[in-house]
Amino acid sequence: MEEDHILIKRYLDGDDNSLKMLIEKYTSSVYNFTSRFVKDAQRDDITQEVFIKVWKKLGSFDFEKSQFKTWLFTIARNTITDHLRKRKIIFFSSLDKDEENFGDTIEDETILPDEALQKLQDKELLNKVLNELKEDHRAVLMLHYQEDMNFREIGDVLGKPMNTVKSYHQRALIILRKQLE
Fold it and tell me: How many helices (H) and strands (E) does the chain have?
């Protein structure tokens, strides 16, 4: 993530293009993370709000305390939580079927129609099971497998101890295995 630090330093030194590059690098990741918890246009608004907060707070980012990605996803998580509290939403929504999601895989043009149908059904089942997980369990899986964060980084994002994150991860995998059998 040294590239992130270089871009941040350049931005703080007056290079506005560096901020644009940083935002472009993470927009789809933040959008996909947001999509697991909110629907429709709200995803766009929340993603934009996250990057506005990043822009406003970038001068206070401490390179010594955390990686930029961890800091960014903490802001995303808090923004989503604030949004859901304002709307008093208790249950979380799934992605629309046509959006990128946790179960996406690399498309293979050589797949036969029957195999493609099976993959689609498997993906839909995986999304259904993921959406039935508790919010924290789902977030741990997404951050670990989709964003390649380690348990310590996920703990920083969620504000949970590393051992709690590991426990959430294990429980989520057990639930997934049972549901997918």
Answer: 8, 0
